[in-house]
């Protein structure tokens, strides 16, 4: 591993996690990463959503089928004509960069965005459990709160995030309804159980990492929600598991990425797939993304909409608690397999 100045990195990953970057830990990480190297670059299925609203019935059903097929075969897809302003996303990205470029001490100590700042992995015991990234992970309910928790220079960011969250919330509910419709199930569940009290908006930054090309920007995982909507930049780095192999996703800044979460896989009785994915660091440039997570209330009961079910019934609170316990004891998320019948 090349020598570097710990003080030159913001956040101070190398300084605070120096025990992870020892020669032995790095060798172990490189060995394990080699076994999961990317074998190909691909483009996700690209779906034009205009036919959901403006097409005739045949065109609409073709679009529904495209969404359902991608959710079953890939667990990921891209959408265009999604109804979210490109200028709004660009303006939010500009404010996002300004926020992340604050000194680390100010990000940690500030109350901006309701003290939602996080970085690295406090529980990591090896590089395979570490993420070279920082984020503001904000509950939507907190975006509506003021109460002196927002510094004046970032009030515009809060307003932009509220608009993005509102637009992505609407899109997520449309897509969830389409996927429920395809299964012949009622879509009322999402309207009744998913609200701003439990959904999140996350601003991500992946700083450049020039000393170790195998370092995760975000370690392999599945999402613990129903749906995730992602707006990413042109840099790339997102990879997902397809046919038991890691594939690199070619970035398309003009499209939004949608992926199925664990809860939707259980709710659909494995028709739709929550697919493992990760982000790899870039040695020269930083990467940014904005993610919206469609989540239910903590007491919502997740059960398969079709019988016989492969999963026992569980609440979102029970699922999150089990994930946290597994990460604490093993360093990794186990996820849905804990709830199989």
UniProtKB/TrEMBL annotation:
Residues 195-296 form the Fe2OG dioxygenase domain. It catalyses: gibberellin A1 + 2-oxoglutarate + O2 = gibberellin A8 + succinate + CO2. Its cofactor is L-ascorbate. The keyword Repressor does not apply. Its EC number is 1.14.11.13. It holds the Pfam family DIOX_N. GO terms for biological process: gibberellin metabolic process. Keywords: Dioxygenase, Iron, Metal-binding, Oxidoreductase. GO terms for molecular function: gibberellin 2-beta-dioxygenase activity; metal ion binding. InterPro entries: DIOX_N (IPR026992), IPNS-like_FE2OG_OXY (IPR044861), IPNS-like_sf (IPR027443), Iron_ascorbate_oxido_reductase (IPR050231), Oxoglu/Fe-dep_dioxygenase_dom (IPR005123). It is an enzyme of class 1 (oxidoreductase). Belongs to the iron/ascorbate-dependent oxidoreductase family. GA2OX subfamily. This is gibberellin 2beta-dioxygenase. It comes from Dendrobium catenatum. The lineage of its organism: Eukaryota, Viridiplantae, Streptophyta, Embryophyta, Tracheophyta.
């Amino acid at each position: 591993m090349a020598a570097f100045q710990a003080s030159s990195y913001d956040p101070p990953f190398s300084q605070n996690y120096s025990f992870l970057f020892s020669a032995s830990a790095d060798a172990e990480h490189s060995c394990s990463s080699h076994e999961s190297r990317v074998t190909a670059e691909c483009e996700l299925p690209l779906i034009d959503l205009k036919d959901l609203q403006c097409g005739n019935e045949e065109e609409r059903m073709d679009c529904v089928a495209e969404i359902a097929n991608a959710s079953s075969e890939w667990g990921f897809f891209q959408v265009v004509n999604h109804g979210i302003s490109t200028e709004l996303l660009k303006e939010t990205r500009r404010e996002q960069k300004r926020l992340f470029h604050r000194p680390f001490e100010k990000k940690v100590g500030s109350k901006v965005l309701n003290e939602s700042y996080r970085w690295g992995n406090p529980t990591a015991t090896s590089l395979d459990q570490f993420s070279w990234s920082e984020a503001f992970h904000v509950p939507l309910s907190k975006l509506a709160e003021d109460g002196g928790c927002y510094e004046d220079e970032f009030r515009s960011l809060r307003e932009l995030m509220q608009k993005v969250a509102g637009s992505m919330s609407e899109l997520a509910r449309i897509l969830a309804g389409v996927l429920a419709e395809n299964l012949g199930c009622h879509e009322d569940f999402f309207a009744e159980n998913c609200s701003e009290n439990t959904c999140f908006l996350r601003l991500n930054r992946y700083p450049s990492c020039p000393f170790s090309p195998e370092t995760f920007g975000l370690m392999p995982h599945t999402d613990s929600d129903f749906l995730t909507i992602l707006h990413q930049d042109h840099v790339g780095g997102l990879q997902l598991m397809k046919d038991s192999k890691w594939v690199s996703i070619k970035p398309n800044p003009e499209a939004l990425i949608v992926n199925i979460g664990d809860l939707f896989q259980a709710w659909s009785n494995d028709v739709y797939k929550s697919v493992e994915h990760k982000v790899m660091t870039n040695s020269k440039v930083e990467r940014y993304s904005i993610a919206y997570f469609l989540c239910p209330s903590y007491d919502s009961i997740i059960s398969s909409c079709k019988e016989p079910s492969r999963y026992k019934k569980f609440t979102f609170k029970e699922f999150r608690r089990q994930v946290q316990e597994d990460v604490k004891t093993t360093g990794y998320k186990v996820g849905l397999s804990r709830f199989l019948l």
